[in-house]
């Protein structure tokens, strides 16, 4: 606690000594449970805040458990206004980059209101980078500061420590902030004040008060800056600065490995409108530079090891990302942004509504949307015709299984129909498949061949353990596949690509696509 500060800080230092045995850790967090008779209004974003039911409403006979224990339909809540709604903590998950302040507001009999907020001034200690999704506040009333979890990523993010492997990491500090308003119940006023306090905490990072030698001050850290340009010669044969690209330092690894990295720290920023970036307060150590750019597929990585020392200032100059490109674009579906949000997300079953997300930009957070596919396509699977169909209306956001009458499930095969005015039968075409999330799915690709018993042109094998569909997400881990298509497989005129999701082990198996593109031979 600091003098004059309306709250308190907490942090943790995790240690694995060299002589200790091997060890796995899948989730770790700080949890706060507030008084249920006091705190009844929750806020996690400007457009994600509401009055919440009581935790008692989740228990039978007031609540009915749905497909998994976290999801409960409120059939007879204490307060009738919540009747028929679904409560599920995963409906309130947040990406790490926006999971900086959330909490609850209480109102007492005198009409005074009090806010209790969890503020995370830096996500440098969280695993897996800025897009990793974490739980925050949810019914309880509960506030979580999750340091590490496997949610929306699966087994790839289980922290594994071998024998003779020393490790230490500082998680936090985080700030628990309290504010109040004596002018009656005003959630907006308290929320805006909490957001301003979050800004104050961010500007004070790294803090000067921790006594531990493991938490380094700003003077003991370094700075890294430069400029990022993009060159896609089939769009514009020039080096183009990009605005809003994410640029980060993380442990040395392979292209895109930052999204599965958990033992070290990560430091991210975004480029300005001229492509310049500056990453400050970087802890000493060895890093690779990583980046991704909305509007372009793939990941950028600077393979040179970047060594940050105390007080160092490194300017790397201009870096150029040349995204994967084989030939001119013949057609494309979606937007390369690592998310399936641009595709068609249906209205929920009226029995399973969370009213917060009605007419909301995050409509994908409703419960049970995986069941809506069979409602829309009861007998035949999705067919998309290039040049006629609209991916915003005609491409379902997730390729899921179809439930059969005997409570079993079957895989699904989607079709992409397209027309070619001419074909270079001796040339090589390229199919780009960017996936936003996968759960126990196998994607098989066939071209102009519907025979599912024949060997596919390409198969991913069974991949992914992200459970994004069940947890109301719109992305998990990013997967990119680049598939050679011999011109002899194509014909002048009408062609069809068959996308078969072959596994059928339950309702949550499936694929969220990010972006699909067919490129012609190089010109």
Describe this structure in words.
By secondary structure, the chain is mainly β. The chain has three domains: about 200 residues, Beta-galactosidase, Chain A, domain 5, CATH 2.70.98; about 100 residues, Sandwich (Immunoglobulin-like), CATH 2.60.40.1120; about 190 residues, Jelly Rolls. It has three helices and 35 strands. The radius of gyration is 25 Å and the shape is globular.
Distance between the termini: 65 Å
Number of strands: 35
Biggest pleated-sheet summary? 9 strands, mixed
Extract low-pLDDT stretches: none
Helix segment tally: 3
Q: What percent of the residues sit in helical stretches (DSSP H or I)?
A: under 10%
Whole-number mean pLDDT: 96
What Rg is obtained from the alpha carbons, in whole angstroms?
Answer: 25 Å
* CATH topology group of the largest domain: Beta-galactosidase, Chain A, domain 5
Beta-strand residue fraction? 35-45%
Q: How would you classify the helix and strand content by structural class? A: mainly beta
Topology:
Elements: E1 7-16, E2 23-25, E3 28-33, E4 39-45, E5 48-51, E6 63-65, E7 72-74, E8 86-87, E9 94-95, E10 101-107, E11 113-119, E12 133-134, E13 137-138, E14 142-148, E15 159-161, E16 167-181, H1 187-203, E17 222-232, E18 236-241, E19 246-250, E20 267-270, E21 276-282, E22 285-292, E23 300-308, E24 313-321, E25 329-334, H2 372-376, E26 383-385, H3 391-394, E27 399-400, E28 402-403, E29 409-410, E30 412-420, E31 428-447, E32 458-465, E33 479-486, E34 493-501, E35 510-519
């Amino acid at each position: 606690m600091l003098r004059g500060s309306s709250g308190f800080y907490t942090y943790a230092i995790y240690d694995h000594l060299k002589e200790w045995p091997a060890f796995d850790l899948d989730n770790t967090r700080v949890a706060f449970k507030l008084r249920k008779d006091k705190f009844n209004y929750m806020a996690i974003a400007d457009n994600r805040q509401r009055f919440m039911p009581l935790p008692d409403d989740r228990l039978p006979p007031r609540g009915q458990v749905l497909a998994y224990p976290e999801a409960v339909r409120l059939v007879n809540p204490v307060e009738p206004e919540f009747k028929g709604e679904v409560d599920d903590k995963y409906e309130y998950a947040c990406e790490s980059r926006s999971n900086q302040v959330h909490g609850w507001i209480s109102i007492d009999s005198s009409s005074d209101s009090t806010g209790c907020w969890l503020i995370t001034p830096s996500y440098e200690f969280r695993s897996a980078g800025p897009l990793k999704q974490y739980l925050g506040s949810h019914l309880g009333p509960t506030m979580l500061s999750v340091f590490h979890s496997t949610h929306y990523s699966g087994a790839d993010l289980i922290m594994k420590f071998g024998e003779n492997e020393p490790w230490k990491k500082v998680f936090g500090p985080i700030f628990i902030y309290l504010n109040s308003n004596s002018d009656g119940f005003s959630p907006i006023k308290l929320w805006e004040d909490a957001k301003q306090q979050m800004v104050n905490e961010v500007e004070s990072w790294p803090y000067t008060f921790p006594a531990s030698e493991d938490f380094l001050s700003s003077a003991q850290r370094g700075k890294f800056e430069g400029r990022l340009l993009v060159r896609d010669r089939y769009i514009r044969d020039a080096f183009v600065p990009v605005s809003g690209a994410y640029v980060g330092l993380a442990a040395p690894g392979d292209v895109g490995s930052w999204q599965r990295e958990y033992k070290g720290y990560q430091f991210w920023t975004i480029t300005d409108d001229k492509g310049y970036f500056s990453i400050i307060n970087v802890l000493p150590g060895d890093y690779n530079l990583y980046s991704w750019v909305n509007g372009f597929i793939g990941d950028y990585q600077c393979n040179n090891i970047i060594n940050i020392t105390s007080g160092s200032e490194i300017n790397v100059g201009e870096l150029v990302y040349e995204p994967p490109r084989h030939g001119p674009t013949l057609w494309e579906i979606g937007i390369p942004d690592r998310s399936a949000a641009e595709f068609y997300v249906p209205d929920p079953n009226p029995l399973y509504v969370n009213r917060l997300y009605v007419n909301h930009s995050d409509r994908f957070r409703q419960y049970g949307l995986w069941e809506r596919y069979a409602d829309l396509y009861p007998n035949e699977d999705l067919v998309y015709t290039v040049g006629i169909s609209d991916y915003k209306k005609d491409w379902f956001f997730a390729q899921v299984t179809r439930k059969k009458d005997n409570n079993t499930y079957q895989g699904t095969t989607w079709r992409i129909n397209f027309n070619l005015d001419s074909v270079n039968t001796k040339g090589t075409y390229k199919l780009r498949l960017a996936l936003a999330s996968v759960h126990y799915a196998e994607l098989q690709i066939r071209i102009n061949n519907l025979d599912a018993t024949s060997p596919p042109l390409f198969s991913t094998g069974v991949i992914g353990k992200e459970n994004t569909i069940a947890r109301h997400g719109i992305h998990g881990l990013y997967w990119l596949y680049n598939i050679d298509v011999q011109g002899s497989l194509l014909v002048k005129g009408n062609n069809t690509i068959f996308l078969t999701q072959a596994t059928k082990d339950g309702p949550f198996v499936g694929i969220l696509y990010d972006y699909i593109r067919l490129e012609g031979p190089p010109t």
